[in-house]
Amino acid sequence: MKITRARALGTCFGVRDAIEAALDPCFSGDLTIVGQLVHNPQTVAQLRQNGVQMVDSAAQEITTSNVMITAHGASENLKEELRERGHIVYDASCPLVLRVHKAIRRLVEEGWHPVVIGQSDHVEVRGIVGDLDDFTVVGDLEDLDQLEGRTRIGIVCQTTHRIRHAQEILSAIRTRYPEIEIEFVDTVCKPTKDRQNAVDELTDQVDLMIVVGGYNSSNTRKLMKVCREKGVFAHHIETESQLEADWFDSVDHVGITAGTSTPHEVIDAVHARILEITC
User: Fold this and answer.
1) 3-state DSSP of the chain
2) Are the CB atoms for 147 and 136 separated by under 8 Å?
3) Which pLDDT value is given to residue 37?
4) Among 71, 92, 100, 134, which is most buried by a count of CB atoms within 10 Å?
5) Ranges of the chain with pLDDT below 50
6) What is the pLDDT of residue 237?
7) Alpha-carbon separation of residue 272 from 4, 10, 236, 265 (angstroms)
């Protein structure tokens, strides 16, 4: 059986830099991360083993002097709130997420109504809109009613959104509301696009895809969506221990991909386990 890894997969530079920052010995156990630094269970376990504390939100009690904003970013309001509570704030926001914040601020300053294509409950989107008084989040075509009556809208995307889906929404807005003036800023990050495009290519070659990443990872779930839309059977796993031998029965070619928060050592372990099962 042939095994092929997607040409782009696994941890991106934003996630890698955030993990390295959180593991810096200078914190000496005096660090709390607000939210999940990355959506990967192995990395979360490693952080805890190094004395890093974690809270789901800033509303919870934080006992350390230092706090860290995750790679997903946060609003300036939240950062200022943490400083007012006496914490030293370290910002591990991905530069490509900060690019979205900058883009939406510019759109608002120019008089556009800000629209974010993405998941309204995702931490990144909450950070993007957290400093705005008026905004719209569009997750799917069913949300387009919210744009009724708008005359000028400026649109950005959650960085991990599927660019094809974003383009479908943009096209639907233009069709449904031809009178609305639109400025669209494509803020889907390149690592996300690379991984989605690589899966799109690989699904044309394989019988089965193994998608590796946290179950709560937005970009990993979107890789699964690509597989389903291409009609290729796929399994989403977090660790190599979840692989089952019967998945590979009658399979000639299996592909491996992984989300942007999945460490390469996890991908290596999955690859090695597939070899054990199939050889």
Assistant:
1) CEEEECCCCCCCHHHHHHHHHHCCHHHCCCEEEECCCCCCHHHHHHHHHCCCEEECCCCCCCCCCEEEECCCCCCHHHHHHHHHCCCEEEECCCHHHHHHHHHHHHHHHCCCEEEEECCCCCHHHHHHHCCCCCCEEECCHHHHHHHCCCCEEEEEECCCCCHHHHHHHHHHHHHHCCCCEEEECCCCCHHHHHHHHHHHHHCCCCCEEEEECCCCCHHHHHHHHHHHHCCCEEEEECCHHHCCHHHHCCCCEEEEEECCCCCHHHHHHHHHHHHHHHC
2) yes
3) 82
4) 71
5) none
6) 97
7) 12, 16, 17, 10
Cα–Cα distance, 67 to 65 (Å, whole number): 7
Domains of the chain as residue ranges with CATH: 2-10+190-278 (3.40.1010.20), 13-94 (3.40.50.11270), 96-184 (3.40.1010.20)
Q: Which of 124, 142, 229, 244 is catalytic?
A: 124
pLDDT digits (tens, 9 = 90+) for 208-253: 999 999 998 888 999 999 999 999 999 999 999 999 999 999 999 9
CA distance 155 to 124: 15
Q: Please say if 238 is a catalytic residue.
A: no
**For 80-111, how does the pLDDT look when each residue is reduced to its tens digit (9 = 90+)?**
999 999 999 999 999 999 999 999 999 999 99
pTM (predicted TM-score): 0.88
Output the pLDDT for position 44. 87
Say if residues 212 and 238 touch (Cβ distance below 8 Å).
yes
Phi, psi of 112 (to 5 degrees): -85, 145
The pLDDT assigned to 219 comes to 86
List the structure tokens of 220: 């990993």
